[in-house]
Design goal:
Blueprint (H helix, E strand, L loop, with lengths): L1 H47 L2 H35 L9 H10 L3 H22 L1 H9 L14 H35 L3 E4 L2 E4 L1 H28 L13 H31 L3 H30 L3 H4 L1 H14 L6 E4 L15 H5 L10 H8 L5 E2 L5 E7 L2 E9 L1 E2 L10 H7 L3 E2 L1 E9 L5 E6 L4 E2 L7 E2 L8 E4 L9 E5 L7 E4 L12 H10 L4 H4 L8 E4 L3 H8 L4 E2 L4 E5 L2 E12 L8 E2 H5 L13 E2 L1 E11 L5 E5 L5 H9 L5 E2 L5 H4 L6 H14 L4 H6 L4 E2 L17 E5 L8 E10 L12 E6 L16 E5 L9 H10 L1 H10 L4 E5 L3 E3 L6 E10 L7 E9 L2 E5 L2 H8 L32 H23 L2 H21 L3
Parallel strand pairs: 3-29, 23-24
Antiparallel strand pairs: 1-2, 4-7, 5-6, 6-9, 8-12, 9-10, 10-11, 13-16, 14-15, 17-19, 18-19, 19-22, 20-21, 22-23, 25-27, 26-27, 27-28, 28-29, 30-32, 31-32, 32-33, 33-34
Helix pairs in contact: 1-2, 1-15, 2-4, 2-6, 5-6, 6-7, 7-8, 8-9, 26-27
Protein name: UPF0182 protein AUMI_12950
Pfam family, one: UPF0182
Organism: Aurantimicrobium minutum
Length: about 950
């Protein structure tokens, strides 16, 4: 019996050490996983040369966690300890309190230490996440500009005020919790008691509670004092900032209320030593009443009976403040606004003085030709181009040439059934080459004309490193590199000597942490949940693992204080392909500046205002230009706006991370541009703040808005995107690479008049001098259109195109059969004394492997339109047979050759493809002749022949 009875105990006893061992192993495993993640971050930042970013964040967060923990835990512990130690020893408690004590006493020490520690952890976590506030305050740099109300340097609002308010809020919470802890402890241990309906407070408890209340109310007084400065960011509905009522009622009321709070705090100090609560309680009641009167009642009365009857005149000075500081905060204060008395009559020779601009009109739409790039330049299914291409410019034969560009990135999904860990990680590791097409040219059959193309890459851009290891669509991670004795396994590009032969390469840069030992491999095997990293014999001590390969992601990790532009673009600079990313410093604390949701401002999709917007800003500067090398992923940051106080402050926090603009090469300088998102934010602001007269601003009679994209479907609403073009803007001395957008009147009813009211353009050419940007770069010009002349806006022009019977007839003919008509971007140019609209028209077969071909050009000037095969022809027709352009744009070139192993990127090297394209050209000619003669049977036969020829061309191209 004894053996039977003790065996379960023995078995349980045997399980104890096993359970403990398992528990320890689980804890160690969790700790190692956490350590592996941290160690991987260390390796990544260290390899990139930005380890101080990680350590600064860690040390700052750890330091502020400790500070927050101590700031909360120590006072709460002291409050409990003081209340306990000063308890009445022989107090007679009631039975209820006796029961409380019986429950609490065994746990007293645990609660005395545990409660403050728990609260301290919460406070520490809160302060740890807010370390940037303290660092900005400590390192803040003056702006040299003062606000118009308090005459404080703007840096006070950017750096000091947010920190002070956060500190007051934290200490208010600490004091409040101290008071609650003291109140509960004193009550449980009899220092506060209700005897025969009479509240009795022991002297020690009275002193403790009264002093705690005094400190709390004094802190509220400080908070109220700080609130007066916060009025300069209040949204009053009319403007952002303090208006007449704020300045003459709310701010004085807050100042008085703050002093009253300090007096009430003194009354509680008096109570602590006299024991008389009446004055302090009366003072507290008076503080509440004064708060209601001074911050709500009096301002309401002034607004209702003084301001509202004369609002326009009384608010005028404060509207002027709002206009001035909003324009300053968004960088549009120095905009060159001038009237542009646009004519709507297209007279012969009108474009003679704008021949340079006309010759630079981009007819290739980067949003439509991605399929063309793919069909002509993809070559293999494991390559891909982005859905929308970028616009850049290159100097070709001494002349700046606008170009549509894209990199040929890796698309592992195209590998199909051959996907495996080995192939995806070690073989298919990178894309290859940058492809660029002339923005102003097309081939005779409507294809883009490439200035850089092919595999290997050849063209006008010279020799450069073509491999794309870091791009917007790169794989999650790849393992690259190896010793010179290791046979290359990374697929470089398809060879020309045979269909199944490939060229292999070994990465030779410094692109990621090295897998030089078993421990590093184990760390990354855990990070990516892939045991092959640890076990594969293809991974050597010289192998590197590259990850976090998206250019924006890399820059964001090394510069977390920047807001990044949403549109990185690739460019060839100094023999390398670089991704260029614009970085912004932003703030939501600039006084008197209008608050905007940055995501809404830069979006082309109109969205209703959200009550939970987390990216509100009212100050923005393009402070940093960042580059990411597409080959080795190296990140370089350049201080573009060296006068920006916010950037200067962050540079003190992260010293040596940002290079001065003087270190930018001439080649890089020639490829930076005015950023799209900044331009959109400024465009959004200028819709209202182009008005500088307070009276007109108050009336809102001249508000503008960006027109909807007229090429979108009728059931879709999308703002027209800004466009990059090389042009000479009225008032400028010479043509320059620029970004522009247009304005129409803001709708006041159910619809808006789609007439042009403004034309905004920013000089986007920084010049080509090393370390020095052009004085004209970033210059904003706003052309205001006359109100007495109706200049058609984009919507009206598109409607005129669609409604014109001749145009409609030709478009219908083009879209018959198995083809669709695609309307390209509608460009607006201030030339010829008016506004010229240019729209390319593409034709695309409905087949699965089809791509758009540029066939026609629509142009408009005023109410007159033309629709021809080429831009020069269309301009001549539009301007009475002579547009005045002596140098017509270069169109109708033959399509370039297409050789995957070394051609320049077209389609005539393949005899079958050449024959198919020739047949397609003949079918197009026959179809046009049949249309003119009205022979619709012949037209149908030619259309069928065109479809057949295009199908054969696509088949012959190998796609």
């Amino acid at each position: 019996m004894s053996n039977a009875s003790t065996s379960p105990v023995r078995r349980l006893g045997n399980r104890g050490p096993v359970a403990i061992t398992v528990g320890i192993l689980v804890v160690l495993l969790v700790v190692f996983f956490a350590f592996a993640s941290v160690y991987a971050d260390i390796l990544w930042y260290d390899q990139l040369g930005f380890l101080n970013v990680l350590t600064t964040q860690w040390f700052a967060a750890a330091g502020f966690f400790v500070a927050g923990f101590i700031a909360m835990a120590v006072p709460v512990w002291l409050s409990i300890e003081i209340a306990y130690r000063s308890r009445p020893v022989y107090a007679r408690l009631n039975s209820q309190l006796d029961r409380y004590q019986d429950v609490i006493e065994p746990l007293r020490k645990l609660l005395t230490w545990g409660v403050p520690a728990l609260l301290g952890v919460f406070a520490g976590l809160s302060t740890a996440t807010r370390w940037p506030l303290a660092m900005l305050w400590f390192n803040g740099v003056p702006t040299g500009t003062v606000d118009p109300q308090f005459k404080m340097d703007i840096s006070f609002y950017l750096f000091d005020l947010p920190f002070f308010r956060a500190v007051v809020s934290l200490f208010s919470a600490i004091v409040l919790l101290c008071g609650l802890a003291a109140l509960i402890t004193n009550y449980v241990y009899g220092s506060i008691a209700i005897v025969r309906r009479e509240l009795r407070v022991a002297k020690a408890a009275r002193i403790q509670l009264a002093i705690t209340a005094a400190i709390y109310i004094a802190l509220q007084g400080v908070s109220i004092w700080l609130d007066q400065y916060a009025t300069l960011n209040n949204d009053t509905g009319l403007i952002t900032g303090a208006g007449y009522t704020d300045v003459n009622a709310t701010i004085p009321g807050l100042q008085i209320l703050s002093l009253i709070a300090l007096l009430v705090a003194l009354l509680f100090i008096v109570t602590a030593f006299t024991g008389r609560w009446r004055l302090s309680l009366i003072g507290t009641a008076m503080l509440v009443i004064a708060g209601l009167v001074l911050t709500m009642g009096y301002p309401w009365v002034m607004q209702r009976f003084v301001v509202d009857p004369s609002e326009r005149s009384l608010e005028a000075p404060y509207i002027a403040r709002n206009i001035e500081l909003t324009r300053e905060a968004y960088g549009v204060a120095d905009i060159d606004a001038s009237p542009y008395n646009a004519t709507t009559d297209a007279t012969p020779g009108a474009l003679r003085s704008d021949a340079e601009t006309t010759a630079s009109i981009r007819i290739i739409d980067p949003a439509l030709v991605s399929a063309s790039f793919a069909q002509l330049e993809q070559f293999k299914q494991y390559y891909a181009f982005p859905g929308e291409l970028d616009v850049d410019r290159y100097t070709i034969d001494g002349k700046s040439q606008d170009s549509v560009v894209a990199v040929r990135e890796l698309n592992q999904a195209g590998v199909g059934s051959n996907q495996s860990w080995y192939n995806n990680t070690l073989v298919y590791t990178h894309g290859y080459g940058l492809v660029a097409a002339y923005g102003t040219e097309r081939s005779s059959d409507g294809q883009p004309v490439f200035l850089q193309a092919g595999i290997p890459s050849t063209g006008e851009l010279g020799e450069f490193e073509p491999r794309i290891y870091f791009g917007e669509n790169s794989p999650l991670y790849s393992i690259v590199g190896g010793t010179s004795s290791t046979k290359p396994v990374e697929l470089d590009y398809p060879a020309a000597s045979g269909e199944n032969e490939q060229v292999y390469n070994t990465f030779a840069g410094d692109g990621g942490p090295k897998l030089e030992n078993v421990f590093n491999r184990l760390v990354y095997a855990l990070k990516f949940q892939s045991e092959e990293i640890l076990l594969s014999d293809a991974v050597t001590n010289d192998s590197q693992i590259i990850y976090d390969r998206d250019p924006r992601e890399r820059v964001q990790k090394v510069a977390p204080y920047l807001t990044l532009d949403s549109d990185p673009y690739p460019t060839v600079v100094d023999g390398r392909i670089l991704w260029v990313i614009d970085g912004y410093t932003t703030s939501a604390n600039y006084p008197y500046s209008k608050m905007e949701s940055l995501s809404a401002a830069i979006s082309d999709q109109p969205q209703p205002a959200s009550a939970f917007v987390l990216d509100n800003v009212n100050y923005i500067r393009n402070s940093v230009k960042a580059t990411v090398d597409a080959y080795d992923g190296s990140v370089t940051l350049y201080a573009w706006d060296e006068e920006d106080a916010v950037l200067k402050t962050w540079q003190k926090i992260y010293p040596s991370n940002i290079k001065p603009i003087s270190e930018m090469s001439a080649d890089l300088m020639s490829h930076v541009r005015y950023p799209t998102d900044l331009f959109k934010a400024q465009r959004s602001i200028l819709g209202q703040y182009h008005v500088t007269d307070p009276g007109s601003f108050y009336s809102g009679d001249d508000a503008w808005v960006t027109p909807n994209d007229p090429t979108e479907a009728s059931d879709a609403t999308k703002y027209q995107s800004p466009y990059y073009l090389t042009m000479k803007v009225p008032g400028a001395d010479a043509p320059a690479y620029s970004i522009y957008s247009t304005f129409i009147p803001k709708a006041t009813g159910t619809s808006s008049r789609n007439v042009l009211t403004g034309y905004l353009v920013a000089n986007s050419d920084a010049g080509a001098e090393a370390g020095k940007k052009s004085e004209e770069y970033g210059k904003l010009r706003l052309l205001t259109l006359p109100k007495v002349v109706t200049v058609p806006g984009p919507g009206q022009v598109q409607n005129n195109f669609n409604a014109d019977p001749d145009v409609s007839k030709e478009l219908n003919l083009l879209s018959q059969g198995s083809t669709n008509v695609l309307k390209g971007n509608l460009l607006t140019l201030p030339v010829g004394g008016g506004l010229l609209y240019v729209q390319p028209v593409y034709v695309q077969s409905t087949g699965n492997t089809s791509y758009p071909l540029l066939k026609k050009i629509l142009v408009a000037f005023g109410d007159q339109i033309a629709f021809e095969d080429t831009l020069p022809e269309a301009l001549d027709v539009l301007f009475g047979g002579n547009a005045g352009v002596d140098q017509p744009t270069n169109e109708g070139a033959q399509p370039p050759e297409n050789d995957p192993a070394g051609g320049s990127g077209g389609s005539t090297a393949n005899p079958e493809l050449t024959k198919a394209l020739q047949d397609a050209q003949k079918a197009l000619t026959d179809r046009e002749a049949a249309r003119v003669s009205g022979d619709w049977a012949a037209y149908g036969a030619a259309d069928a022949a065109l479809t057949d020829a295009l199908s054969r061309a696509l088949s012959a191209s190998g796609n």
